[in-house]
What does this fold into?
Amino acid sequence: MHFKNFLVLFFCFNITLGFSQSTSKILKKAETSTKSLSYANAIELYDNVLKKSKGLSPEEIQKVKLNLAEAYYFVKDYKNAEKYYEEVLSNNPTLKGDEIKAFQRYAQVLSSNGKHQESSKIWTKYTELQEHDKRGAQFSKLYANLDPLIRNAESYRIEYVGLNTDSPEFSPTFYKDGLVFVSSRNKSNSVKRVFKWDNSSFLDLYYLEDLKVISKEENNNAALGSGGQSSESPKIKPKTEKLGNDYYTPPTSNDANTIAHQGSDLINGSKNYEENSVIEIKSFSKKLNSKYHEGPCTFYDKATKIIFTRNGTSVGGGIFNNNKKEDITRLKLYYAERKGSDWGNIKELDFNDDKYSCGHPSVNSTDNLLYFVSDMPGGYGGTDLYVSRLINGIWSKPENLGGKVNTVGNEMFPFIDEGGTLYFSSDGLPGLGDLDMFNIATDTKTGKPTGIVRNLGAPLNSNNDDFGIITDRERSLGYFSSNRKRGGSDDDIYKFNRVGPKYGCRDLIVNVFDKETKKSLGVMVFEYSKVSNNIITENATTNNSGSIKLCLEADNDFKFEFKKEGYEEQVLNFSNADASDFEPSTLNVYLKQEVKKVEALVKTEAPKKQRELIQKRSTGGTLNVFRGVITGGEEGGPIAAVKVKFINKCTGEIQEMYTKKDGSYEFKRDPECDYELIASKDDFGTSSEIIEKSIRKTLFGKKVKKPLNTLNLFDTKLFKVGDVIKLENIYYESDAFKIRENAKRDLDNLVATLKKYPNMVIEISSHTDTRGNSFSNLRLSESRAKEVFKYITSKGIDKSRVKAIGKGESEPLNACSDGVQCTEAEHARNRRTEFKILKIEKI
It folds into this structure.
């Protein structure tokens, strides 16, 4: 148990649902434990009731199971909570008032267990029952597409810090050259202080004197064996177990959601687990650490003053101090000053009150704004964030930060960085798990939030609780707390380094219309660039509907340039600094026709659907006759009225005809002459091929017939604007963009096609497989497309005729999407390059 639960303790509803007078004494004891918030004891009692349930009615058994689910929820054993919630709520029971919140908690449990789609359905059910709570719609929208929260995961490296134990460690704060943090690790004293919520130890402040020790611990891990420690790092103890390095992957069937080892034996994972700190840690202060909870703190005035969280006036709940029952108290904020080697002048802040709790303080870099969390009356829901100002040495009456950050859920653990960015955790805003971390810009003078709230995304957030972050202005390095390793109340402290962009990308849909008709302009190429570096220009091509979806680097300004024949050029600026992370922004562009070309444009026909004409040699042909059939269209049937010319290369004689209704044609031929076959149709590019002679003379004048089946291989394609042709052999190694040697022959064929059609303009599009981060894949595909562009233009093709674009993992050829297991060959299919015809000479 820690302050995540402790602050929530005082506004939880009474989950006891009432039973008949025949209920056993054990059940009455369980109800009493639930009312007093002694959930660990209640779990054992309810479990015994279910084992002896013969005297209970089906309705009473359902109520016991719901009480058990709620108790598991509050001790954060989400595996068992899900089991009992499902057994009860799947029967659609009739719940009233605060009982309906069981659906909300069930939805949170499912998302924390990685079951986001199932969670979305329960959120929808909860919204139907609680129409005033709009969180369900927001969570459902996020769970329909989690990509915005995971697309920038590769930008952060997460490291497990060696100060952790099998007890909770959380809420670090910078102090001098080290860290002060909260923990319930055992101390060598004769007083056993146990909190009845989950039978865990009480919390105190602990101190790591020098952060450099963490770096030494990380660098020397390889040198530390199970039998000793590095002579260069005397403060580092040997590791007790090997830990993984991926702390944000969603849980699998092998994972368990657990809490600290001191809990009830019935709480999942609470037994047979031990872990010791590998770094020497000491108690922070004899004066500040008391017999009750001390929690998150903050320092200011050159670290000579501290504001920290501690229990205040008694309100009941019960701990055991040498078997003597004492009361739990409200959380309050206390002030102290540095006095010699310790702290003194400890006193409460003036705005504390016995009727509500205050905790989790954070003072800004100019020492005049104090952020904290409270459940005082007049808030938005569970716990809210507040700000107080230092005026003449006194912290003013707190002001609620308002609806930009506060929800009907719980907002906790604020931290204000030196640039005025406010970080906090919430279970009321859409996220990956129970508590997710968020940030928002603030006005450095008033302290009030500005802009919009942003989820920090993976890997800083996970399916579990993530909270208590501290970092610098650029979020390049920092520390935070999470229970992602074992779940429950086993919170640990993690270090992070940013190794990539601070933000990922945000979606933008561009739609291009005719200004007069308001109709789509179909396929067209436009350019865009970042205003901060408009030398680097990107190309983009709209689809047949005149639209395209882009993912642009977040918090940037962009310039778009639109040029289309017959229309006036248009330049637009766009900023996604205030854009949503979850919903695409829209940029509607209306191009105005040039007056001198209006008449010609009116006569322009609408783009036709993409078609492909294939001419194939008929089977059973003879040496003196050349036959063929042209097929294609949407159904693959024969195409009539295609003009076909057959030119004798010996005499220059031209035969000409149009294909019949069945798409067929037939010409006489001299088997000892080559012929040129030309096929054309309005709106298609002209295609020509050389048909080699079928009888050749040897050196001695002997005539030799070519095998007949070689005459049946004629296969020529007629191209049109909009055709997309896959280059079959342009594949890449995973995570590479250099072209394979065996792919260059196919690119040479493309070069030959471009030389055959000197007015053809194409777009090269490159695709990646779906593994890895989508933003990184987009960048990789752009590099691949540019490599193809370089190769083609190096062969003499003018650069103006070739556009290059990367599409990342957005258009896989198979079902290998995120989370789908595929073979390497299946992934390789998606690492491909295609070209699309943007312009071609017409007949």
Q: What stands out?
A: The two ends are 79 Å apart (CA to CA). The chain has a mean pLDDT of 76.
